[in-house]
Amino acid sequence: MSSVNLKSPEVVIREIRLGSITGFQGNAENLVKKSHSGTLEDAPRSFSQCTGCSSGQAFCQLCMIPDAAVINHAPIGCMGDANGFNFVYRVGQMERRLPASSGRYFSSNIGESDTIFGGTETLRNAIQTVFERVYPHAIFVTTSCASGITGDDVESVTNEMTEKLKIPVVACFCEGFKSKIWTTGFDSAYHAIVRGIVKPPKQKTNRVNIINFWGSHIFDSLLHRLGYEPQYVVAFSTIGELEHISEAAASIQVCQTLGTYLGAALEQVYGVPEIKTSPGYGIAGTDEWLRELGTVLDRRDEVEKIIAEGHERVLPELVKWRERFKGKTAFVTAGAAHGHALIAVLRELGFEVKGAAIFHHDPVYDNGCAQADMLARDVKDYGDIQNFNVCNKQAFELVNLLRRTKPDIFIARHGGMTVWGAKLGIPTLLIGDEQLSFGYDGILRYAERIAETLDNTEFVTNLAKHSTMPYTKWWLEQDPYAFLGGDMIVESY
Amino acid sequence: MSKVIEQPRYSCALGAQQTVVAIKRAVPVLHSGPGCCNKITSLIGQGESYAGGSTIPCTNSNERDVVFGGVEKLRSVVNGALQVVDADLYVILTGCTASIVGDDIDSVAQEFRDAGKPVVCAETGGFKTNNYRSHEVVVNSVIDQYVDAHRAEGGVQKRLVNVFATVPYQDPYWNGNLAEIKRVLEGIGLKVNILFGQESEGLPEWKTIPNAEFNIVASSWVGLGIAKHLKQKYGTPYFHFPYLPVGGVETSRFLRQTAEFAGLDKNRVEAFIDSEEKKFYSFLERMADFLLEFRYGLPRRFYSILDASYAIGFAKYLVNELGVVPARQFIVDDTPEEFRGEIRGEFAHLTERRSVSVEFETDGGIIQQRIRQDENKTRALILGSGWDRDLAKDLNADLLILGVPVEYRLILNCGYAGYRGGLRVIEDIYDRVLDTYR
């Protein structure tokens, strides 16, 4: 059954659509088995720390479309992430040699009276104001807990304003309380884009959509060699370019946690084939991914050459790195699919992964394809992983686990986590660019960064010596999963 | 009428979680949606501190809590927080979800207090107000629900004062500012409860709040709600100095007025002021030739895009002591109507011969439009935030980031209040100016 329904204004949340979870303890093999047999159950927590929400993730995808404006229909605090994303946007402009500009982000600034009398008039005025100030090619309206609970009919207002202003004014439903899996917000943004912006294809082109954040353009040379043009979406694509992503020859996923919904929607609605096999991380993973790409793009022979060249170039180097990293251990915390990818690369480099705290788990993606499961590939290519914890940024569990596993290196993909490694004196690495470790050469690029980090122990050793720990001695001696499932007082998270 | 805000420069009521983070060994416990804490710390939380950021316990309200109420879950999370997080005070704060649903957090906090646990609560649903005003709500809640029950022995202590001078983290230089204010007040013979940050002794200090001889509000309007509350509750009088004192003239004025209010020994006060001014003005004198002789362009006028306390404090300092004159002045803290008159008055009498008008505007987009419409004939200084970088570049102006989002600065103990802060202002402005030359 298709999980994509463009008639509905709202995307179905991941818990229901995909059966995704945020709490699990055990080993990776078991998690994969449960996922593939439909027996996966979420384990709630009776104590929890702050996580992320859908509205932040939706904004993350909508805020770097250069000719669009975003209105957050919310109290002012919900826009606290705008400055951070604007910074990222501007760094991306530097990397792409684009002129500096700030994103056009607005809060409808709803207050107490809006929660009592409804905030649709406030929203209508906001849309009009923004239109007159910016003259954007589209306006996205992201919702909030307050507007959602109050029950504002945002869809009616955006439809009405679309007609009035003659540009797409698109509602994106991403209330924080609706889903505990914040990546549902990616789906909300993509649902809004496919529903409100993308047009039916007029002609097929030789463009390939690369569904990514705002990472480096590592696919250019590969695709050019195969006779295709990359179209990196969504960040830095204009509304005009997004209208035509339905005409692409294929869609590439860098991380299915991010792109599951967009890849599936473009395939199911407009027939753009999605490269479904798990993305190219690690040697075996890259081999398989490239072969699938060659099949979909009808370039099998050329791809075999690329694979052979890749092996020749990278394998001898890899032997050296493996020798160097022999006996080293690592612990990973990251979002789901990319976390699995990092684990693959680490194990390719000879690390023992002693454990992981992965933010959520999708037992299946919207394409329904078992081959897409990066964690299953990890287990198949490199064996099981112990201490595989699904944990949505619960730092208290992470600290407890890190103290027990004592890895040689701690790898984090998101902010707010790294400090716990460093405070314990563990060399810690955060990599922002998820494309860094992609493909054959990515393994080597990653190896260099890891070697640098492992070599740099003075800072963490000194920091550990002078750091405080906000967790109680009692807690640090408990089982790290003491608040997960089991004899809980009440379902918490 | 649209009330749209482009480029926000403050947070919602729940932003007062940072007020709690700024109290030593206190931790907020959010009864809110899952993303609130993240968003707040992104705007006003540079640096996680002891138990802020990813450490903050949160109920992460979901659909079920919104439909059926989230009180049980809150109880469970507070219970966990008491076991897991090593803190001396736990402050329950509501977000939009719990505030709209109407969860009875008072009863939950009371239950824990009845069991001897240091748990207090405050209503801070984001839609209710902004973090300037809820700062007062949270401080008053801690006073009513914690301090009052644990108040220190003995009555009023002569010379002991509580200082309410800034909103921690909303003022990115709060720690440095408070440290300097404490230093100069101690210099004139007071014992100072500074309450937040490194120079505070934390909750033992809070417990002596009722024992203060008087309270000082050094801020244009935030903090008055606390001082009035304390006056009503404990009869403590308060002295209001309506802006951030920056530099020699204003810090000395602040100290003299405070000393007069307190009836301090004049000789001691004047001796301290004299010694501080000597140091301060020796530096000002040392660089006067630079200000007068640098031939290649220094900013001679300044725009402010600041909260009221900073705007007045900096305007007085820049005009009187550095000779930089005000261009348009924007107050961005959503000042309540009742306080605007006094702020206008301060600008109307900025110096004996200079009167400046002031605009209250929270929408950064509008402010920038207005500044861009100016003639902009001479080099300008913009006192603003990270949002104003392109504006400054387009106008060939120099930007000193004083407000959030700071984005392009990393701030530890830098402060701009007082004598030392005044010198730091000079270093930072002209550091930026000189850095523009090749």
CATH topology of the domain at 324-477 in chain A: Rossmann fold
Major β-sheet annotation of chain A? 6 strands, mixed
Topology of chain B as a string of helices (H) and strands (E): EHEHHHEHHEHEHEHEHEHHEHEHEHEHEH
State the shape of chain B: globular
* Biggest beta-sheet profile of chain B: 5 strands, parallel
Strand order of the largest sheet of chain A: 1-11-10-9-12-13
Look at the structure and name the CATH superfamily of the domain at 324-477 in chain A. Nitrogenase molybdenum iron protein domain
Query: Cα-atom Rg of chain A, whole angstroms?
Result: 23 Å
Radius of gyration of CA atoms of chain B, rounded to a whole number: 22 Å
The count of β-strands of chain A is 13
CATH architecture level-2 label of the domain at 324-477 in chain A: 3-Layer(aba) Sandwich
CATH class placement of the largest domain in chain B: Alpha Beta
Structural class of chain B: alpha/beta
CATH superfamily of the largest domain in chain B: Nitrogenase molybdenum iron protein domain
Under the CATH scheme, which class of the domain at 324-477 in chain A? Alpha Beta
Oligomer: heterodimer
Helix content of chain A: 40-55%
In the CATH hierarchy, the architecture of the largest domain in chain B is 3-Layer(aba) Sandwich
Explained architecture:
The complex is a heterodimer of chains A (493) and B (438). Chain A has 493 residues and is an alpha/beta fold. Chain A has helices at residues 14-17, 28-36, 54-62, 82-95, 112-117, 120-134, 145-150, 154-165, 184-196, 220-225, 239-243, 256-270, 283-296, 300-325, 336-348, 374-382, 395-405, 418-423, 439-455, 458-465, 473-477, and strands at 23-26, 68-72, 104-107, 138-142, 169-172, 207-211, 229-233, 250-253, 329-334, 352-358, 388-391, 409-412, 428-430. In chain A, the strands form three sheets. A six-stranded mixed sheet of chain A has the order 1-11-10-9-12-13, with helices on both faces. A four-stranded parallel sheet of chain A has the order 3-2-4-5, with helices on both faces. Chain A has a three-stranded parallel sheet with strand order 7-6-8. In chain A, helix 13 (283-296) runs antiparallel to helix 14 (300-325). Chain B has three domains: 13-150, 3-Layer(aba) Sandwich (Rossmann fold), CATH 3.40.50; 160-268, 3-Layer(aba) Sandwich (Rossmann fold); 287-434, Nitrogenase molybdenum iron protein domain (Rossmann fold, 3-Layer(aba) Sandwich), CATH 3.40.50.1980. Chain B is built from 17 helices and 13 strands. Chain B has helices at residues 17-21, 36-44, 63-68, 71-84, 96-101, 105-114, 131-147, 174-187, 203-206, 224-234, 247-262, 266-293, 308-322, 337-348, 364-373, 389-394, 418-434, and strands at residues 5-6, 26-31, 89-94, 119-122, 160-164, 191-193, 214-218, 238-241, 301-306, 325-331, 358-360, 380-384, 398-401. In chain B, the strands form three sheets. A five-stranded parallel sheet of chain B has the order 11-10-9-12-13. Chain B has a four-stranded parallel sheet with strand order 6-5-7-8, sandwiched between helices. In chain B, strand 5, helix 8 (174-187) and strand 6 form a beta-alpha-beta unit. The chains are: A alpha/beta (493), B alpha/beta (438). The interface between A and B is large, with 78 and 78 residues. Strand 3 of chain A pairs antiparallel with strand 1 (5-6) of chain B.
